[in-house]
């Protein structure tokens, strides 16, 4: 069954025989290219967000060490020793 449809990418009318939503290979390539750009941008933004979260977590740990009057390395050593005790006791 042939239907006249409107291309979702360029807006031209075309005759479709199935579930096609894009009129030609050129439109398909362009839409895929735009999709990949959006996908990569979203992936990059997620990566940046994770980096910011890690950086803020590190800043909080350094601030905690400063409040307690010890170095960051000593704070990490204390936490490691406490975790080792928990795992050995459990």
How would you portray this structure in words?
It contains 2 helices and 2 strands, in the order E-E-H-H. It has 90 residues and is mainly alpha-helical. A two-stranded antiparallel sheet has the order 1-2. A hairpin with a 6-residue loop joins strand 1 and strand 2 (13-16). The longest helix has 44 residues, at 25-68.
Secondary structure elements and their pairing?
Layout: E1 3-6, E2 13-16, H1 25-68, H2 72-89
Antiparallel strand pairs: 1-2
Cα shape: rod-shaped
- Round the mean pLDDT to the nearest integer and report it: 85
Largest sheet: 2 strands, antiparallel
How many beta-strand segments? 2
- Spans with pLDDT under 50 lasting ≥5 residues? none
Structural category: mainly alpha
The helical percent reads 55-70%
Measured between the Cα atoms of the first and last residue, the distance is 69 Å
> What proportion strand?
5-15%
Number of helices: 2
Radius of gyration: 28 Å
Going across the biggest sheet, name each strand in turn.
1-2
Order of helices and strands: EEHH
